[in-house]
Every structure is written in structure tokens, then in C-alpha cells.
Design brief:
By secondary structure, this protein is mainly alpha-helical. The protein has one domain. The chain has ten helices and two strands, in the order H-H-H-H-E-E-H-H-H-H-H-H. Helix 1 crosses helix 9. It is globular, with a radius of gyration of 18 Å. It starts with a helix and ends with a helix.
Length: 265
């Protein structure tokens, strides 16, 4: 099972290299079901993996001039605060059983992975409807209250489920900051890298015992997969793959719901 998990780590990176995003959303289910990690640890490790992958992608986009650094900082700072609050203060004090309905105990694991599965459905929807996304005009505007509120919300969500939330950030940057789509994608990668990595180091790294050896191996395999995916992308139509991967994420989300709310009950 662990060998399969490392193969999935490579697949996560390849997917990121091929279609530019989405693959990291598989990190939490791979860590939780293939490596049997606790939900708190799985979502925490995912932040490091997602953040590192986004940093690699963001660096490539920055070289192409597709990152608006001012927007990344304005949006990223409240997002970092949101992740930090959730990971450092909220997650550690969550009880094993959140509440009880009749004879059903709604556990912390059910809450975290159930919300993650919902996020997967939204991510899949964003992938399957990518062609309908409108682009900004490129005349960047700064609606600071909305950007800060959106940053806090996305940061808090990221902290709770361990996913980057690019499908939420990109439309926000297009609609609120009026960025062109290519710049919004590049800027979102920098925001994801900042909030995920800083959230991990300011939260989980301070309150959890981290298996650094495992984390570095898993992340290194994923990063290697990114470069492999970039190479393969020269020969394969990434847009068609994105649709197929969107359906695969739906299957994974259904699997998580079944595992947590049906089979384990």
C-alpha cells in the first residue's frame, strides 16, 4: 500500500505538470488511506506538499511575468493569518467527537474529510467548466476589504482541509482584482505557496511531531513528477486530461464519503 502511495505521489506531481493544478487535492486522501495517517497529520502534511508544489509552479510562472506580486501579498497575508489561526489554535483543540445525533457520533475525522470531499466536488466542477471562465481586463484594481475577507476565508478553509483552493482563488483574483486569467493563475500559485508553507511552519510544525524524512521523500517524488509532467505535456493535450481528471476527482470524493459515512459506520 505504501508503494502505491508513493506512486500516487508521482502521479500528483505529473498531474500538476500536465494541467497546471488540481493534482495536489489528492494528497490528503493518499496520506489518509494509503499511509493511514491521522486526519490532522494528513491535512498538515498536505499543506507542506501543496505549498512546495505551488512554489515550484509559481516560480516558473514568475519567470514568464505571470505573477502580480502586489496582489499576491495583499491577498496572501490575510490567507496566511487564516491558515495559521486554524492550524495553530483550532485544529489542536477539536475533540474526537464533534457532536452526536441519536446513536451517530459525528467525529472530527468525518468533519474534516467530509468537508474535504465537498471541496473535491467543487474543484472537479471548476475543472469541468474551465472553458467558461471569464478573464479580467488586466487593469488591476484593489478592493481591499473584499480581498482581505476572501483571503481570510480561503486561508481558513485551506487550514481546515489542507488543500490549496486555487479554484476559489483564481475566480476571486479575476473578479475582485481584475487580473487577466494567466496572471491570476500564476499569482494564485504564489498565494497558495505562501499560505500553505507558512501556515504549516507557523502551525503544524509547532504543535505536531513531524516525520520529516517521510514528508521530504513524498514531496520530492511529487516535485519530480511535476517536471516529468511538464515534459509529457509537450506531447499530450492537457485540456482533455483536465476533463478526465475532473471526473476522477468526483470518483475520489464519492469514495471518501462512502468510507467515512457508510462503510466505517
Amino acid at each position: 500500500m505504501e508503494i502505491a502511495g508513493y506512486i500516487m505521489a508521482l502521479l500528483i506531481g505529473i498531474t500538476l505538470g500536465l494541467i497546471g493544478g488540481g493534482g495536489s487535492i489528492l494528497a490528503v486522501p493518499v496520506l489518509a488511506y494509503m499511509f493511514h495517517l491521522d486526519e490532522k497529520i494528513a491535512t498538515g502534511y498536505s499543506l507542506f506538499i501543496v505549498g512546495t508544489a505551488a512554489l515550484v509552479g509559481g516560480a516558473r510562472q514568475s519567470k514568464k511575468g505571470c505573477v502580480d506580486w502586489r496582489t499576491a501579498i495583499v491577498f496572501g497575508l490575510p490567507a496566511i493569518i487564516g491558515v495559521w489561526i486554524i492550524r495553530h489554535y483550532v485544529i489542536p483543540i477539536l475533540p474526537n467527537v464533534l457532536f452526536t445525533v441519536g446513536e451517530l457520533d459525528f467525529t472530527r475525522r468525518m468533519g474534516m474529510l467530509g468537508l474535504f470531499a465537498l471541496l473535491m466536488f467543487l474543484a472537479a466542477y471548476a475543472m469541468l467548466n474551465d472553458t467558461e471562465r471569464n478573464s479580467g481586463t488586466g487593469e488591476v484594481t484593489y478592493n481591499y476589504p473584499l480581498i482581505i475577507i476572501e483571503g481570510l476565508i480561503v486561508g481558513g478553509l485551506t487550514g481546515f482541509v489542507g488543500a490549496g483552493g486555487g479554484f476559489l482563488i483564481i475566480p476571486a483574483l479575476v473578479l475582485i482584482a481584475n487580473l487577466e486569467i494567466k496572471t491570476a493563475i500564476g499569482t494564485s500559485l504564489i498565494i497558495i505557496a505562501l499560505k500553505s508553507l507558512l501556515g504549516f511552519f507557523m502551525g503544524d510544525a509547532l504543535v505536531m511531531d513531524i516525520d520529516w524524512g517521510f514528508l521530504f521523500v513524498f514531496t520530492s517524488i511529487a516535485v519530480a513528477g511535476i517536471f516529468l509532467g511538464i515534459y509529457i505535456n509537450q506531447y499530450i493535450d492537457g485540456r482533455k486530461l483536465k476533463k478526465g481528471f475532473g471526473y476522477f476527482i468526483i470518483v475520489m470524493a464519492v469514495f471518501i464519503f462512502a468510507m467515512e459515512f457508510l462503510i466505517q459506520q
